[in-house]
Amino acid sequence: MAATLKDATAIVGIGQTAFAKQLPQSEKELACRAILAALDDAGIDPSEVDAFSSYTMEETDEVEVAKGIGAGDVTFFSKIGYGGGGSCATVGHLAAAVATGQASVGVAWRSRKRGSGPRPWKNTAVQLPTPGQWTRPFGLLRPADEIGMLARRYMHEYGATRDHLFNVAMACRNRANENPAAMMYERPLTREMYMTARMISDPLCLFDNCLETDGALACVIVSAERARDCRQKPVYVHSVAQGLPSQHHGMVNYWNDDPLSGPAWTAARHLWKQADFGPQDVDVAQIYDAFTPLIPLSLEGYGFCGRGEGAAFTEGGALEMGGRLPINTGGGGLSEAYVHGFNLINEGVKQLRGISTAQVPDAATCLVTAGEGVPTSAILLRA
Amino acid sequence: MTTQTTTTTTSADELLLPVPDEDGAPFWEYAAQGELRIQACAAPDCGKLRFPPRPCCPHCRSFDSEWRRMSGRGRIWSYVRPHPPLLPAYAAQAPYNVILVELADAPQIRLVGNLVTSADAPLDSMDPARLRIGARVQVVFTETGGIAVPRWVLEKS
Ligand SMILES: [Zn+2]
Prior knowledge:
The complex is a heterodimer of chains A (383) and B (157).
Chain A: E1 9-16, H1 27-42, E2 51-55, H2 62-69, E3 76-80, H3 87-99, E4 106-113, H4 143-158, H5 162-176, H6 191-195, E5 199-202, E6 204-205, E7 214-223, H7 224-227, E8 235-243, H8 263-273, E9 284-286, H9 294-301, H10 310-313, H11 332-335, H12 342-353, E10 365-369, E11 376-382
Parallel strand pairs in A: 2-3, 2-4, 9-10
Antiparallel strand pairs in A: 1-7, 1-8, 4-7, 5-6, 8-11, 10-11
Helix pairs in contact in A: 1-2, 8-9
Chain B: H1 25-32, E1 37-41, E2 65-69, E3 73-82, H2 88-91, E4 98-103, E5 110-113, E6 136-144, E7 147-154
Antiparallel strand pairs in B: 1-2, 3-4, 3-6, 4-5, 6-7
Bound molecules: zinc ion.
């Protein structure tokens, strides 16, 4: 058995459906289509799949998926909590299962009809992880409101401005404009559009929020040894971590001693400790972007800059192609699709295969992160 | 028009009412008496405040707790101004403010609330130009749907 997960497994297949505001297929059908596409990409027969992982919010469970795609006997399955915080941990759990011999072919997936389905914040009965009695009656109803509160304080403490948030939205939009699969392909954003957009939760405007998307994605994980015989160039899972910091309260992390230091910091410490390289060696990053302020906060958490420097980091085209750290090269949740961050995983794989629509030349290392502001996860991928 | 279900209650104006859990119930019982109280560890050598309320002290792991009265004064730590799409009762008052108040007695205890011109004024009653991080505020209580809910007014200097 492997003593470490480092490069012990690889992602060998990726698949996705179309992304749209409204798709006719059910979530179950979208899940099966994305998974079969990923297996076909890998050149692995669906009957060989013996492990599944997805999010607790995934409504198509492994029983239905396994039956649907004609999987074999399944010996490992897991679900990760906290919405978008779970994305990278699906890969992490499967990597651990495969590396320790619990399974041999793992499939991670997310299928979601957020574009045409109900808004999660309309479920006012949601009590986790912090009871709504302390927030909902006062009209703090949506994730945008909860993150907006942290964003305002961040701007106040560190001199961050809406221009910094615009830099984030613009980088994602520019990449989506290069990606025919993105919902915002051929739909450019300008500074004027951003600055005059309607507010959602002031200080956050429309363009600070992720898209509402129907769609599904999946990827396939096998051992490094088996990966050498697959159809595609392996992308190795170099380091994985989850992060649930001491005192953390979920999205409304207001009762922490330090609310602006989120789960990214915790995940990052373990991620880098297990890795052969550091933030300065990352060629391209896919950073969870349900809201623009999550980017400066994550840049700080994952060690690309110091505390309070995340906003300034976005200046001078740093997040654009050719910049210090190109991010979200498919367009991210802000401009490609918002499928709880799974598109960021697949985009990381595309970069290390050299097939992204916004390819960073010779990209050999990629950080992928899950939702900041909730118990989170992250993976380092290497070519 | 007021609808009640097992999971959600709303006030006469259809704003959501708090649904207290076992740990939080004392907060709302004291609020009904016009008192802002925060849970504190009752272990003799500890006494640390904690929020949201929960069974065990994270500092000393004692399960003994008491509810300590606060002065009701605080400062705005941050705020947002929600705009639609929102639940209908909130959309009707939008854009309103939601503030996060750090208590003067215990700055690490921060309460979500609304800054209003008086206890019973609507959520959008305060001029947004007066919202400022650091502004001093004072708790007031308003009764809605049979529950006393804390709101905040600017402290008179
Ligand atoms: Zn104690």
